[in-house]
């Protein structure tokens, strides 16, 4: 495993990095980014994860064998069967809003990339994962204007650290109805039912019809009795507050019902309410379980590109907003772009950033395919973008997640050789009930298991954790829940992107390359040190350059006849002015690079987070390849 020594200061549940003392990477961890990823393996594991999140009586074909039956009496005391479904993350609560969004995204993944899943023998698992969720949603909706939206509550649940099989916390259930509305919850559940109905249309038509009936009722309920669900289910507010309101979910439900039924009534709803509900007003830079506008805009653009939905100019407005999102992710908008870490990961929020990354990567993947089919490009303010560039960005984000990052860490548990060992997850962190059935008490779980420094006794295969911070740092600590907690909605969109990367898309934009014909790495050349370079600049004085580039080889290793080198490069501002802009190019670079932003073909500039370099200070970047030291050239620079 890699060795990362940090000095960390704890502030309650949070933390801050004060220094990076040492960064050593062994051969085994570096292989994950020097070789192609097995997207099919990652796809299979991302689906297995859901079996670890199941609530209720487990089926005979359960593959996560350290789990056992749990929460078998949910809803019983209130006269309703609410067994089944999924625990949302590392706790034991069933939250309806994120669960429904998870089902919507899993279903959308199947709709776009089900054929690719079938090629990898994963389609049946994907459908089974969806059905475990929709069966629960059907049980939660037994009356047209009543929807049960939560079982358990986060406050009492978080007081205890217990595996699901031992729960002693409240299992009280909460609902919305005509007197206590929740248009966001009902709308998202309608979207989930509608999307899932398409996924099951060919394999189980009666079940698909049942889902459509529920979706239509829920849409009518959501639209007729309007209100935020967390005003009716107040216990959800501290955990899944609907900050965006319910307008986006009404449009989201409407456009999914159009996709499922082809009924123009639903498209007309999306068009007629585009202004009042914000569909063409909001220009978005994120997509999540809370904020659905970007998803609505992408689906509306899909209909327009495919010649469906009518000829209203409003669809063109939706398309413009969808492309704003894509351009923001590509950092080709003027002003409002998605930030990136020095290692290239899109960075949205400190808490569970990876959920936004996987959702954005999914929208980028499908939109690149929609454009490819329509033979179109996007006119971003920063230049025209073709489908390949959009898909390349999505791929880069998934590759980062799987290990192509400065820490050579896979943020999917069980994938690769260097992945999180202490995830914030009750079931994974406590010995399996099947191994030791002795009761784990509410507070005893914290004393005996939560505070343990060892690795989790159960590997939660396929779980995607919250991921690194804005500087690519990650602390593998159970207490570090902002980074180390997995969630069902992290994986939902990821399933689709992994299927796309494994099996190719509409026109096989990323065809599978047989391993036997994969490109060979560079021929190993023994390392010979090269002296630091001083690049000439018009402001040079007394024979000294204003910019000094100093390279050092920090470590090397051999693997399969190749010698790999890690180089650290310092760019020093040797002037008396601030270095405001810098463009670099490389000669002889044959590997991965971190800490610079790509500005064009073989043109690199400051990382997104760096605005300037003060006088006599420097910044650093890193590259790794099986070749001698690369030559770094200065193309242009600006001082002020």
Report on this structure.
- With 640 residues, the protein is an alpha+beta fold.
- Helices cover 36% and strands 16% of the residues.
- The chain is built from 18 helices and 18 strands.
- The strands form 7 sheets. It has a 5-stranded antiparallel sheet, covered by helices on one side.
- β8 (378-380) and β9 (383-385) form a beta hairpin.
- The model is unreliable at 1-35 and 507-544 (pLDDT under 50).
Looking at this protein, list some descriptive labels:
alpha+beta, 640 residues, globular, three-stranded antiparallel β-sheet, single chain
List strands and helices in order, with pairings:
Layout: E1 3-11, E2 14-24, H1 27-34, H2 39-52, E3 94-95, H3 96-119, H4 123-139, E4 147-151, H5 154-159, E5 173-176, H6 183-199, H7 205-224, H8 229-232, H9 247-261, H10 264-272, H11 293-305, H12 313-329, E6 339-340, E7 346-347, H13 353-374, E8 378-380, E9 383-385, H14 387-402, H15 426-429, H16 444-450, H17 481-484, H18 488-503, E10 533-535, E11 547-559, E12 562-573, E13 579-587, E14 592-594, E15 597-600, E16 603-605, E17 618-625, E18 631-639
Q: Give a quick account of the main beta sheet: strands, pairing sense, barrel closure.
A: 5 strands, antiparallel
What is the helix fraction of residues, given as a range? 25-40%
What would you report as the Rg, rounded to the nearest angstrom? Answer: 25 Å
Q: In one word, what is the shape?
A: globular
Would you report the number of β strands?
Answer: 18
Span between termini = 44 Å
Structural class call reads alpha+beta
What share of residues are in beta strands?
A: 15-25%
For the biggest β-sheet, the strand order reads 10-11-12-17-14
Tell me the number of helical segments per DSSP (H or I, 4 or more residues long).
18
Q: Could you tell me the mean pLDDT? A: 87
Low confidence ranges? 1-35, 507-544
């Amino acid at each position: 495993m890699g060795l990362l020594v940090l000095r960390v200061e704890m502030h309650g549940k949070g933390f801050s990095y004060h220094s990076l003392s040492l960064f050593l990477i062994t051969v085994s961890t570096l292989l994950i980014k020097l070789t192609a990823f097995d997207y099919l393996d990652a796809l299979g594991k991302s689906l297995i994860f859901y079996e670890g999140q199941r609530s209720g009586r487990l089926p005979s074909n359960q593959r996560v064998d350290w789990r056992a039956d749990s929460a078998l009496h949910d809803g019983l005391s209130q006269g309703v069967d609410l067994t089944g479904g999924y625990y949302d993350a590392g706790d034991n609560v069933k939250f309806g809003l994120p669960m429904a969004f998870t089902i919507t995204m899993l279903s959308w993944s199947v709709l776009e990339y089900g054929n690719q899943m079938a090629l990898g023998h994963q389609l049946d698992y994907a459908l089974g994962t969806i059905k475990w969720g929709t069966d629960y949603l059907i049980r939660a909706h037994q009356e047209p204007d009543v929807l049960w939206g939560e079982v358990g509550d986060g406050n009492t649940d978080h007081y205890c650290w217990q595996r699901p099989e031992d729960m002693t916390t409240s299992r009280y259930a909460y609902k919305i109805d005509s007197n206590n509305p929740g248009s966001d919850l009902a709308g998202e559940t309608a979207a989930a039912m509608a999307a899932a109905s398409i996924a099951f249309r060919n394999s189980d038509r009666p079940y698909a019809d049942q889902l459509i009936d529920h979706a239509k009722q829920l849409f009518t309920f959501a639209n007729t009795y309007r209100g935020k669900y967390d005003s009716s289910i107040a216990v959800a507010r501290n955990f899944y507050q609907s900050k965006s309101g319910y307008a986006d979910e009404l449009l989201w439900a409407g456009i999914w019902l159009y996709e499922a039924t082809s009924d123009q009534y639903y498209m007309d709803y999306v068009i007629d309410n585009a202004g009042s509900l914000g569909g063409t007003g909001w220009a978005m830079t994120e997509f999540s379980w809370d904020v659905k506008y970007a998803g609505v805009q992408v689906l509306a653009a899909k209909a327009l590109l495919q010649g469906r939905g009518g000829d209203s100019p409003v669809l063109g407005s939706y398309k413009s907003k969808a492309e704003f999102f894509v351009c923001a992710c590509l950092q080709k908008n003027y002003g409002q772009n998605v930030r990136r870490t020095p290692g290239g990961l899109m960075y949205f929020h400190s808490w569970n950033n990876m959920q936004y990354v996987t959702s954005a990567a999914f929208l980028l993947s499908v939109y690149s395919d929609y454009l490819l089919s329509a033979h179109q490009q996007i006119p971003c303010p920063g230049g025209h973008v073709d489908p390949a560039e959009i898909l390349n960005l999505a791929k880069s984000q998934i590759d980062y997640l799987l290990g192509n990052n400065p820490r050579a860490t896979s943020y999917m548990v069980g994938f690769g050789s260097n992945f999180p060992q202490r995830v914030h997850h009750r079931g994974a962190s406590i010995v399996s009930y099947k191994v030791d059935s002795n009761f784990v008490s509410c507070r005893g779980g914290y004393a005996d298991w939560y505070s343990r420094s060892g690795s989790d006794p159960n590997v939660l295969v396929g779980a995607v954790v919250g991921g690194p911070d804005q500087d690519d740092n990650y602390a593998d600590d159970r207490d570090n829940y902002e980074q180390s907690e997995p969630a069902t909605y992290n994986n939902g969109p990821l399933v689709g992107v992994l299927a796309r990367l494994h099996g190719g898309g509409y026109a096989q934009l990323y065809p599978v390359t047989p391993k036997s014909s994969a490109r060979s790495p560079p021929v190993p050349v023994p390392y010979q040190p090269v002296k630091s370079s001083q690049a000439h600049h018009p402001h040079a004085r007394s024979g000294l350059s204003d910019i000094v580039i100093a390279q050092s080889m920090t470590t090397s290793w051999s693997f399969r006849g190749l010698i790999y080198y890690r180089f650290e490069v310092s760019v020093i501002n040797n002037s008396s002015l601030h270095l405001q802009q810098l463009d670099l190019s490389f000669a002889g670079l044959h590997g991965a690079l971190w800490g610079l932003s790509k500005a064009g073909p073989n043109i690199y500039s400051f990382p997104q987070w760096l605005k300037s370099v003060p006088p006599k200070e420097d910044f650093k970047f890193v590259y790794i390849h099986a070749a001698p030291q690369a030559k770094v050239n200065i193309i242009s620079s600006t001082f002020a």
